[in-house]
Design brief:
With 361 residues, the protein is α+β, with helices and mostly antiparallel strands. Helix content is 27%, strand content 23%.
């Protein structure tokens, strides 16, 4: 099973939703770096469950335990290994799903892949719980990217029919990025956030769920970062973001709307701003030919509704070969999008830092 990513910075995520612990091994970090553990913890806190009515009530401290890779608080050149212990798992909630796969989950495909040996508890290795180690790595990479003048931030673009104000594709600022990160609910418009929360709670009251879209912005990338044909900036970011469970689509810049446009509209005209080349518009999301243009890099990730819902659904019994009915009980997010925001930031940070390291070596 491949749960690794990266060429210059290589990460490997391990563990299961209900195993003793889960964690990450990061290889390729430069020696002499002092991780800002308080900042890393703040990122993990944004992803952690049990903090609002719109999230799973499962309580996990998610305090990373660094097993290796540091000496006197600094990276020493050895692979850095961090683990986060599972402290509030309730495996009995999943007894009914051992042989009856939950619709919308990886239960069936994991059962087939492993010949029935998969860990079905909480989705096992396929759970969104595995994003906590990714957020650890992303928070560390974001710290290193900031030292290079690169900032990453995301917000909820929409949940159901409720939309937030978008990032300005040409003039986005670090202040906007930080405002969304520091908000109680990660939107640029507080009123939109309130309406989104109501929409989520309404779905939860019906024992149902909703999905949404996360918009991410990256500022300060040097023009030319990225490589054709399969190592382009879009390719690498998309690959990392698709590692987040529930992501079903990624688009850059105008995305699919570009297909409805004309070249005269979609092309971003160049001009000189002092000695710097910029574009009047940013329909291409700050990327051309797989390379950063120097403009803000903008992309959006679409998340499906949480598949764990309290309504009865059709399934099958994989041991008897007969139809079955299933109702998913337990503790689940009625919408994964609010807690997915730091996961999208983390995926982008890991992908960008991996590419940046490649340009230095």
């Amino acid at each position: 099973m491949s749960s690794s990513f990266g060429t210059n910075l290589r990460i490997q995520i391990f563990g299961q939703s209900h195993s003793k612990a889960l964690g990450i091994v990061i290889d390729g970090l430069p020696a002499g770096i002092e991780p800002d553990m308080e900042r890393i913890q703040s990122w993990l806190r944004r992803r952690s469950p049990g903090q609002s009515a719109t999230a799973s009530p499962r309580k996990e401290a998610d305090v990373p335990d660094i097993l290796s890779g540091l000496s006197d608080g600094r990276t020493c050149g050895a692979p850095l290994c961090a683990v986060l212990y599972n402290q509030d798992a309730r495996s009995q909630d999943y007894d009914d799903f051992r042989h009856v796969p939950r619709p919308g989950h990886a239960d069936f495909t994991a059962f087939v892949k492993t010949g029935g040996a998969n860990d079905y508890r909480g989705g096992g290795h396929y759970s969104g719980r595995l994003m906590a180690p990714l957020v650890f790595a992303g928070a560390l990479c974001a710290q290193l990217l900031e030292e290079e003048g690169i900032a990453i931030g995301a917000h909820i673009a929409s949940i159901g029919p409720v939309e937030d104000a978008p990032f300005d594709p040409v003039h986005a600022t670090e202040g906007q990025l930080k405002a969304a990160q520091e908000a109680r609910f990660p939107t640029l418009d507080p009123h939109a956030g309130e309406e989104m929360e109501k929409h989520i709670l309404d779905a939860s009251a019906r024992n149902d769920s909703v999905g949404g879209i996360v918009e991410c912005c990256i500022l300060g990338l040097p023009p030319g970062l990225g490589d054709p044909i399969f190592d382009g900036l879009e390719n690498r970011i998309a690959a990392a973001v698709f590692g987040i469970p529930a992501v079903k689509g990624v688009e850059f810049g105008a995305g699919f709307d570009a297909a409805l446009s004309a070249g005269s509209v979609n092309n971003d005209a160049f001009y000189y701003d002092g000695d710097r080349v910029r574009t009047r518009t940013n329909h291409n999301g700050g990327i051309l030919g797989g390379h950063a243009t120097g403009m803000p890099v903008l992309f959006r990730a679409a998340f499906k509704p949480t598949p764990s819902i309290g309504l009865e659904q059709e399934s099958v019994d994989l041991t008897t070969g007969k139809p079955a009915r299933i109702t998913v009980r337990g503790r689940h997010d009625p919408c994964v999008v609010p807690r997915a925001v730091p996961c999208v930031e983390a995926a982008a940070a890991v992908a960008v830092y991996d590419l940046l390291l490649g340009g230095k070596r």
